[in-house]
From TrEMBL:
Alphabetized GO MF terms: extracellularly ATP-gated monoatomic cation channel activity; purinergic nucleotide receptor activity
Record-level GO BP terms: calcium ion transmembrane transport; response to ATP
Compartments (UniProt record): Endomembrane system
Family to which the UniProt record says this protein belongs: Belongs to the P2X receptor family.
Name listed for the protein in its UniProt record: Uncharacterized protein
Transmembrane segments: 84-106
One Gene Ontology term, aspect cellular component: endomembrane system
Organism: Macrostomum lignano
Biased composition (Low complexity): 139-155
Classification via Gene3D superfamilies: atp-gated p2x4 ion channel domain
Ranges for region Disordered: 127-164
Length: 164
C-alpha cells in the first residue's frame, strides 16, 4: 500500500489553510492468481562442517510506503523588485541590440541611419528643430475649420533665408 501525502501551502495565509491531501494506491496486482499481496523469497547460503546449506525464507505481509511531497511559498518584495528591474534592464538592452544590428549589420543600414538621425548644420540648429516640431504638432492639432480657412488664403509660404 502506498500512501501519498501532498502539501501545497501558501505561507501568507493562516496555518489552518495548510492541510495535506492524502491518496492511497495499491502496489500489488489484484488479478495475480498465485499469491496476492506483498511477498517474495530469498535464500541464505552457508557452509558448515564441509556441508553446504541453504535457508529459504518466504517473506509476506503488508508493506506500507509513504511518499510525502509538497511546496510552500511566501510573498517577498525583494525578489519581485529584482525580477522587475532585470526585466526592464533587458528591455533597454533589447533596443540597443536592435540599433546595433540595424545600423551596422543590415544591407540597408544607410536608409535606417538617415531615418534615425537628423543632420543639422545651421548655427541655431536646436532652435530650428524645436520650431519644426512645434509646427508639426500645430498641424496635427488643427481643426477642420482652420484647414478650410487656410485653403482660401493667398498668403505666400515663407521658405526662410534661401529665397526659394
Amino acid at each position: 500500500m502506498a500512501m501519498n501525502i501532498h502539501w501545497d501551502c501558501n505561507l501568507d495565509w493562516a496555518e489552518s489553510h495548510c492541510t495535506p491531501e492524502y491518496s492511497f494506491t495499491r502496489l500489488d496486482d489484484p488479478a495475480a492468481g498465485i499469491s496476492k499481496g506483498w511477498n517474495f523469497r530469498y535464500a541464505n547460503y552457508y557452509r558448515q562442517n564441509g556441508s553446504d546449506y541453504r535457508v529459504l525464507i518466504k517473506a509476506y505481509g503488508l508493506r506500507f510506503i509513504v511518499y510525502v511531497t509538497g511546496r510552500a511559498g511566501r510573498f517577498n518584495i525583494i525578489p519581485l523588485t529584482m525580477n522587475l528591474g532585470s526585466g526592464l534592464a533587458l528591455l533597454g538592452l533589447a533596443t540597443i541590440l536592435c540599433d546595433v544590428i540595424v545600423l551596422h549589420l543590415l544591407r540597408k543600414r544607410s536608409a535606417y541611419r538617415e531615418a534615425k538621425f537628423q543632420q543639422m548644420e545651421d548655427e541655431d540648429a536646436y532652435k530650428a528643430m524645436n520650431d519644426e516640431e512645434a509646427e508639426e504638432s500645430e498641424l496635427a492639432a488643427g481643426s477642420a475649420g482652420a484647414a478650410s480657412a487656410a485653403v482660401g488664403s493667398s498668403a505666400k509660404p515663407d521658405y526662410g533665408a534661401t529665397g526659394e
